[in-house]
Structure formats: structure tokens, C-alpha cells
Design goal:
Number of helices: 11
Structural class: mainly alpha
Oligomer: single chain
Radius of gyration: 20 Å
Order of helices and strands: HHHHHEHHEHHHH
Shape: globular
Strand order of the largest sheet: 1-2
Largest sheet: 2 strands, parallel
Helix content: 40-55%
Number of strands: 2
Length: 265
């Protein structure tokens, strides 16, 4: 945190926007809220095994319903999940109040996060399911230090499990609450695809996005870049060998067929 910079160009610990968020959360009854860790995840357990048991995908909705019912009997578990939901609700309320908005978009990466947001925050939560070509995801993941040693097969299986879980859980909510968007389509025709996403969210479309330095973005180094267009990234065509591309497609084939068989919302 001593060196982490907000996209506005100031240190996050000195950024007026994030200081307002922190103070707003403290005033709302969350004195433990820290800019270094918002602590909004439902996967809050220290034990990785227990986390997987509680919030991981079991691949069948019936099993997950049974799992949730069993964990409600676990002392303190339901109260903890409700507390996380309330913290998420307050965070969204704090940000939108400061920013003057009414719609909050959560881009967190928990596989079944939408399911828990719907249960513990708002039953009207909507899901935009962004699906990228598995080869692009695998090539991108291998460029990160946390996945550098991972096999392309393992990364492809992760892509399949994640997209299967999202489509199975959220896709069942119907077209008013679930929209699937192709990454490649978004990059090729951002104006049209974004218009559909804005309409789905019930907000007016932006004529042009504001410069990044006028926003308060977190995340990777792209937040500090000067971007004037959306460009399709297909570096996987050279980053993966033909054999690796073939192996990835074969492993992801069942999921790709299931997604193709179920049209976007």
C-alpha cells in the first residue's frame, strides 16, 4: 500500500475518493474496513479445503443446495455469510453515494459469487457472463507468475469448470437476469455490444468513456495506461504451439458445446 497508485495518479492511501470510501464504511459500522483488503469475499475461510467445501462448485445444483443446508447448521456459518452480504451491500451503497450513481457493477472473480450475492445481498442481482476463447485465457494466464508453472491442460480445465459453473447457476435465472457476452465480439464491435450491456443493466449508454486518470480504478497495470480504443488480443496464436492449441480445444470442447447450445440471455 505504500506504493500502490490509483488510476487517478495519486497513492491509493491518499486518493480523496478511496479515503471517502474508507471513512464511509467506518461510519456505517465497519471499523475494520481497510484499503489494503476490502474483505468482501464469501470465500473468507482460512482453510482452502473448507472454502472449497463451502463456496466451491460441486457441478450439480442439487448437491450445492444440500451443501448449503448442511452448512447452515454449522455454528456461526450462516451469520458469517449474512455479515459478508451486509458488508457488500454497504460497500456498494457507499461507492454509489459518493459517485452519484445508482447501479453498482461487481467484477470480483469468485466462481459462484453471483449465487451468494443473490442470496445474501439482493435477489435481483444480474449477471453479465463474459466468455473469452479458451486459448486466449490459457495464453494470458501463463503470462502471470501465479500460473507460470501450470500446464495448458490444467488451465483449460479451469476455464471449463468456471464457465460451466456460471452458466449452470446464473443461466437458469432467465434472460432478464443473465446475459452472456463473447469477449471477441465485444472487442470487434464494442459500440453495439456495450449498448446491449447498458440496456441489460438499465443505464444510459456512455457516448465515450472518460479518461482513466479521471476515474479511480484498481487492478493491474492497464489502469495507468492511456487507452484510446478497445483492441482484440489474439496473441495466443503465437504464444501457444499448434499442439497446445489443439489440446486446449479438445479439453474445453464439452463446455464450448454446452455454451453454444444455450444461447446468451
Amino acid at each position: 500500500m505504500a506504493t500502490f497508485t490509483c488510476s487517478c495518479g495519486t497513492l491509493m492511501t491518499e486518493c480523496p475518493f478511496w479515503l471517502q470510501v474508507r471513512d464511509g464504511m467506518h461510519d456505517a459500522g465497519h471499523p475494520d474496513f481497510e484499503l489494503a483488503n476490502f474483505d468482501l469475499g464469501f470465500d473468507h475461510r482460512r482453510s482452502r479445503t473448507l472454502n472449497r467445501m463451502r463456496v466451491g462448485s460441486l457441478r450439480w445444483s442439487a448437491l450445492e443446495i444440500m451443501r448449503d443446508a448442511a452448512f447452515r447448521l454449522w455454528p456461526g456459518d450462516e451469520a458469517a455469510m449474512r455479515a459478508i452480504g451486509q458488508r457488500n451491500r454497504q460497500f456498494a451503497s457507499t461507492v454509489t453515494t459518493i459517485d452519484g450513481g445508482r447501479t453498482f457493477v461487481d467484477a470480483s472473480k469468485e466462481r459462484l459469487r453471483a449465487r451468494f450475492l443473490r442470496r445474501y445481498v439482493d435477489p435481483g442481482v444480474k449477471v453479465i457472463h463474459l466468455v473469452r476463447d479458451v486459448r486466449g485465457v490459457v495464453a494470458s494466464a501463463r503470462g502471470h507468475s501465479s500460473h507460470a508453472a501450470s500446464s495448458v491442460e490444467g488451465l483449460a480445465r479451469g476455464w471449463a469448470k468456471t464457465n460451466d459453473a456460471i452458466a449452470r447457476v446464473s443461466g437458469a435465472w432467465g434472460p432478464n437476469l443473465y446475459l452472456r457476452v463473447g469477449y471477441e465480439e465485444l472487442c470487434r464491435d464494442p459500440t453495439a455490444v456495450l449498448a446491449g450491456m447498458y440496456a441489460f443493466c438499465g443505464v444510459a449508454p456512455l457516448k465515450a468513456p472518460p479518461p482513466l486518470n479521471e476515474l479511480h480504478l484498481l487492478g493491474n497495470r492497464v489502469r495507468m495506461a492511456s487507452l484510446d480504443e478497445i483492441r482484440l488480443d489474439e496473441r495466443w496464436k503465437t504464444a501457444l504451439t499448434p499442439d497446445e492449441q489443439a489440446a486446449v480445444l479438445e479439453l474445453a470442447a464439452p463446455t464450448r458445446r454446452r455454451l453454444a447450445a444455450r444461447p446468451p440471455g
